[in-house]
């Protein structure tokens, strides 16, 4: 079963962890010096926050697949969405090893589709999401901090 993903940029990580822990009535499943993540079952969402990035508020939305077949199904739908898809492939991002693809909707909202394969010890890198255009994703010439 797929899981909805939301990643938010925040100014004060500790304050935001307290707020969202109260809102969700749950502590984060991952906490790092610049990142926290809640893997909630009700609602079924992977909700992540990070500090130290340029953007604040919703950075991107996504769909987290639980196996390769689900990821392939979501990727087929991305390809049919009539917008360029950037297949990032295997990457380390947000303290996890994943396989990812990115797309921007007609309004420029960035969507990530991914399958996580395990934990990582560093935050990792990702495409420069600020370079995305409505309906298109422009690859970054140099890695940017993951998910921000």
UniProtKB/TrEMBL annotation:
Coiled coil: none
Pfam assignment, any one: Glyoxalase
One biological process term in Gene Ontology: response to cadmium ion
Domain VOC: 2-116
Protein name: VOC family protein
Species the sequence originates in: Sandaracinobacteroides saxicola
